Description:
Blueprint: H1 2-14, E1 24-36, E2 41-54, E3 59-65, E4 70-71, H2 74-84, E5 92-98
Antiparallel strand pairs: 1-2, 2-3, 2-4, 3-5
Amino acid sequence: MKKLLLLVCILYGIVPQTQAQTGTYKGIGTIVFEAGAPLSLIKGTSESANGLIDLETGKFRFDVPITSFRFLNSLMQERFNDKYMQSSRYQKATFVGRIIDKGPFQPRGRLK
Length: 112
């Protein structure tokens, strides 16, 4: 009985969860941006982007917390959050769009 319960728990964890709509994928991703400056490279990375893509309509949306961006230099991170993005006031960035050219799509990575 314990082996059967263990098997059911393992299969539940392996089998992907079904979505209410077919062709809808959720996932967590990485956003990287770079800005070239005369004396230094400004590069920020966030691994906290949450996204949703609906393949039937072509619509997608990604949200990322502003404070989740990390920089090579702590002074860059401080200026980014305090002066440039005002992360205490604007805590989240959202990108919404639509896929125009619908070619073949193969989910990769951590999409569910």
